[in-house]
Design a protein that fits this description.
The complex is a heterotrimer.
Chain A: H1 2-46, H2 58-64, H3 76-84, E1 94-95, H4 109-112, H5 142-145, E2 153-155, E3 161-163, H6 167-171, H7 176-184, E4 199-200, H8 203-206, H9 242-251
Parallel strand pairs in A: 1-4
Antiparallel strand pairs in A: 2-3
Chain B: H1 2-16, H2 20-46, H3 61-85, H4 89-116, H5 139-166, H6 173-199, H7 212-238, H8 245-275, H9 282-288, H10 298-316, H11 318-322, H12 324-342, H13 366-394
Helix pairs in contact in B: 1-13, 2-13, 3-4, 3-6, 3-7, 4-5, 4-13, 5-6, 6-7, 7-8, 7-12, 8-10, 10-12
Chain C: H1 2-19, H2 22-56, H3 66-84, E1 89-91, E2 101-106, H4 115-124, E3 136-141, E4 164-169, H5 178-182, E5 188-190, E6 196-198, H6 208-212, E7 218-220, E8 235-237, E9 249-251, H7 256-259, H8 266-270, E10 276-280, H9 287-294, E11 297-298, E12 310-313
Parallel strand pairs in C: 1-8, 2-12
Antiparallel strand pairs in C: 2-10, 3-4, 5-6, 7-9, 11-12
Helix pairs in contact in C: 1-2
Chain lengths: 256, 404, 315
Amino acid sequence: MFKIRLITSSGLLVFALILFYLNPFFSGQTASATKVSDAAANTAEDNTESADETKIVEEETESESDDSDEEDGDSSDVVFEKLLSYEKYAPKFSIKPRKEAELENFPCMDCHEDEETNYNIRLLEEDHEDYKLEHGAERFWCLTCHQADNRDYLRSLKNNAIDFDQSYRLCGQCHFQRQKDWFFGAHGKRIGNWSGERKLYLCTECHDPHSPSIKPLKPNPPPKVRKGLVFVPNGTHIKKKVWQKYLMDQTGEKHD
Amino acid sequence: MKATFSFWLDFIREAFRGGKLFYLWMTLLTVVVFLGFAAYIRQFQHGLIVSGMSDQVSWGVYISNFTFLVGVAAAAVMLVIPSYIFRDEMIKEVVLLAEGLAVAACIMCILFVTVDLGRPDRIWHMLPFVGEFNFPQSLLAWDVFVLTGYLFLSLTIPYYILFVRYKGGEPKHNVYFPGVLISIGWAISIHTVTAFLLSSNVARPFWHTAILGPRFLASAFSAGPAFFLLTLKFIRRYTDYPVSEKIFQRIAIIATVALQINLFLLFAEIFTEFYHQTDHTASALYLFFGIGGKTALVPWIWSAITMNVVAVLILSIEPLRNNSRLLSVACVLMVVGVWIEKGMGLIIPGFIPTPLGEVFEYSPTLIEVTVSAGIWAVGLIIYTLLAKAAIAIELGKVRYKKLP
Amino acid sequence: MTENLKNNSNQVSRRSLLKKIGVLGTTGAAAATGVTLAAQVVEKSGQEFSDSLDSFFQKHYRRMSPEEVQVTIARLQRKAKRKYNKDISIDTAPPLPVTLFGYALNISKCKGYRKCVDACVEENNQGRDTQIQFIRVLEMERGSMNLEESNHYYDPETVPQKGKFYLPVQCMQCENPPCVRACPVKATWKEDDGVVVIDYDWCIGCRYCMTACPYWARHFNWNEPHVPPEELNPVTHYLGNRPRSKGVMEKCMFCVQRTRKGKQPACMEACPTGARIFGNLLDPESEIRYILENKTVFRLKEDLGTEPKFWYFTD
């Protein structure tokens, strides 16, 4: 009786051990399978020509494989992915498209089709000379962000094509913290509503990608004192800062 | 019933009977009342825009006068306490007059709050059951409640006493004494509630201090008796009512002690504010020294402090206090000093700087001043009439004559 | 009404002329016309009179039955029509279920353009002459959070200015609102979605709430507010942006007329930098919850125990 029990339990143990060792193999297989299928789907969706050298962005593919993230939630792959992009963890959103509606020269290939690509880093003098590149402190030039061979697309650092309407993926390569905030709603601007469909402005709606800092503006007029009263300038009393006081003490100047 | 009717008839007749001087005084007051009323009509039509108040300083002279007068009303009881509890016969003679002052002050308080309302037509919203009376959450609701109650008490007790006297009897101690006891507690409550009305505001650090209640009581028990003393001098001069010199001394002592305590509390307040200045000192800083070149209240508060100090010096030194003329001077200084300290010096700096740090000054407009003067005139008229009739009855000039 | 009146009298006179039923008849008809006319005039002014009588006796909003609310709204619409010659809608949408509104403002993003201030005035029908603004943008000294060093009236050529940062302040919709407790007539209260609202027709204008507010969020109509009719926003809410009268308080109510329909408050929509984030604090997926849980936030005068539902954060 005892013997039978021992045999069954040890048999079960061995079976479990086999399963345990086989597990990574199985899961690895599933993951790669999803990747392939997703890549296919993505190609169809983005209508990207695979004829030219445009590769499908790796992180893009991964980020869109929403189905598989439940299974391998703890694997190191996902942690890496999470670092790369929070896109799939953020609440659902859509963006207000820009390339057709807002970009004057789009599609770029209308002109660039016939032109030879000049890979020399230089200041543009004939066309686009009005673009002042005040971004990246001289580390960039046009082809850092624009696809050389297909100007209708932007490029990632790994030379993967990025759609103009997905420019946040390009920006997020450096500005990943901002990008994360943008995904979750702490940066950027949601359009119209606070509940329901979440539609966002692209980064480029507010930031000129060639000169992204927000430019100073004339503020709207200051508040008025209510009718019937005369405006008396505000008695703002700005106190001296600690360091200013310290320096004044040393020079023997009087402070308040 | 007949007696009551006859009482009121005689009361009114006595109130309006008087010599040339009396009619001159009443005409003068009536003119001021009409001026004030005309100013108020203007305010009613155009809204409170005719005042100097703003979103920054949203309460002005109206509420300042209100807080001062609540003190005057409450002070009547200070004279009641020794008179009834310690059977102080001396003060008993004048307590009825003090109650009359309380009635006048209460009515003035209610008027000052009413003219401060943006929508006086909706005042019925405050009525319990008919409207929505936010009791006991709102301190303002409390204030309305205690003020009306106090007005009721200060009307009924003297009414009972006068009515019994009128019928030729002697008021029964057992009947009015419970009422007096209640009104003593009540008088302290009206001023405490008014202090809490201000000190409950976390938004206004200048008021948000536990010492405000005691300070209010102390200042009330100095300015109230002082004001009353002045009216007594007036009464002694122009009527036959006997007011003995000792009464003046007794009232002067009450006022002196109260003013000493008041000055001490003010000092305690100033010490706490300035020993280690915090951001919350800004209002006090503005009041005493001005901020950023804005110094509208500085002369006021310093003159108030000077007046109070001079008054306390006169009153604390006995030979000076015994001098009738100096006593009057001290009383005037005290009334004006406390009026500034509790009105302009307390209400207005509570709003400066605003909770958002804006230093925005306030000065009353002519309309506000006229309306305030009008209300003061109403109060003086009421006090004059009540005092006149009460004196006539007390002196036994009018008595109920049973018709044969 | 006037059109009607004219037609009516025309009809009557035409009939009397055509029929020519003698002097008596004509006089009778004329008299009838006169009576109709007079009756209509009386009816019209009578309407105005009974309206003002009814508004005097108008009940507290929370005491009205649904029918009374409808009657009141019709009267308020007539009043607005008389004053602005414009038809307005007055919504009474109740708070949304399982919703608690909260606001977060990114002070690293705010550049002090004051776009929110003006958008708010346009949306919420504040009197243009009363100069009420629900939002105050404070220009603050960098290196200090002392509000007393702030400048409310900054007006340089361009903002942001060097060495300054900008702190917009409006009603914080406190969870423990001192103003609500202060009101002697319960004219202001906190709704279930956390918004502190005012019944403008119940307020007596004592301004005690103004004294009680630590954020200077409450404003008073010192005179009769006027909005140019063409600028009047006709989409209103009873507890929101409907036209107010003189002598009553008003304040930011998170644009209930918009937000209870899922739309953003006007200030958030107008903000060109996206510094303002509004949402439902009870929704763990909401942007506002993300900010509160992931960013370093602070609230103004938190030490006063008012529990404001308006947070400031930085990038």
